[in-house]
Hints:
Layout: E1 15-20, E2 26-32, E3 39-43, H1 61-67, E4 71-76, H2 85-88, H3 94-113, E5 118-123, H4 125-135, E6 144-148, H5 158-171, E7 177-178, H6 192-198, H7 207-213, H8 230-234, H9 236-239, E8 243-244, H10 248-257, E9 288-293, H11 302-313, E10 319-324, H12 331-334, H13 338-341, H14 343-363
Parallel strand pairs: 3-4, 3-5, 5-6, 6-9, 9-10
Antiparallel strand pairs: 1-2, 2-4, 7-8
Helix pairs in contact: 3-4, 5-10
Amino acid sequence: MTGLRSTGAELAAAESFSFTTADGVQLRLHRVGPDDAPAVLLVHGHGISSEMFALPEIRNVTDVLAEAGYQSWLLDWRGSSRLPHNESGRPYTVDDVALYDLPAAVDRIRERIGERPLFVVAHCIGALALALSMTGGLLPGLAGVVAQGVFLTPKVTTSARMRVLLGSELIGSRMTHLDSDFRKVGLWSKRTLLYAALSRKGDCPDPTCRMVQHGWGMGAKLFEHDQLHARTHDRLSELFGAIPLSVLPHLRQMELAHAVVRWNVDDERYHALPENALDQADRIDCPVLLLTGSRNEAWLDSNKLCYDVLSARNPGVEVRYTEIPSYGHLDTFIGRGAALDVFGHIVDFLDEVSARDSTSARNA
């Protein structure tokens, strides 16, 4: 995997391997960090890869976790820009990630770590899939969860909702993917005018930056431009791949419900997943940290809403909410200053849960 670096505690404990889900999709895990340490599964968002957690130009979250004594497991699920399935595989929805990808990854990790604690840190659509999988009872016994940007109650602006609606109905009927790199489209493609329209917003002269920053035409900023390291900005076209449009109708359905819902209602293969994750939120059996940037335009105040709903409806679920000032959505992980402003909240949460669990185990 490009971009992963080995420093300090990672040197003796870096390993990549592939595995196959029950429905035949090949995924990948990369392990870094100290041996015999609590494990953290990192789950990326849509159209990017696990490299978002291991950018070499910044002090990334895997660096910080390793220094804090945690072993990171970076997952590339079927929507990773580093996997062939993202562009050439069959269409998928969040259901497939929740039913097949996350449980398979957790099983592989637990085969390696035994009884050691396993946490999950998930971003964006990865967090939506995590919510669906957990409330279906498919990931029991996790030590704790950090959901960044969104979790059980997705919420977007009215304009973004309409853009997703139009995108899924109009664009989705003519093409299966949107390229993030404007240069791949060229000047003479029949899609040039479409891509020009999708990337028209923003002050940056780089059309790929404008395309990605504004959510491939969704209109909501995915990151604060001034939070990016110059090197990260210059290689956005490397970090982001093609965006499958097959997920859009499912996202639209979730956002209209303000809840994580199952797409495949009539397909028996998916009946392990709840029709509405909020209705089975009491199956969440570990502490949850809901994290978001104060300028998160992608999902607005979805995680604040989630905190309020869970606190009122499911007081037995241990949940807390943290908002990072001046950060947007994706820059909470890829921002140049995220190690100082964001990752400490994650480590503090993991440390607190780990210390409490250790005390409980000694007293048992």
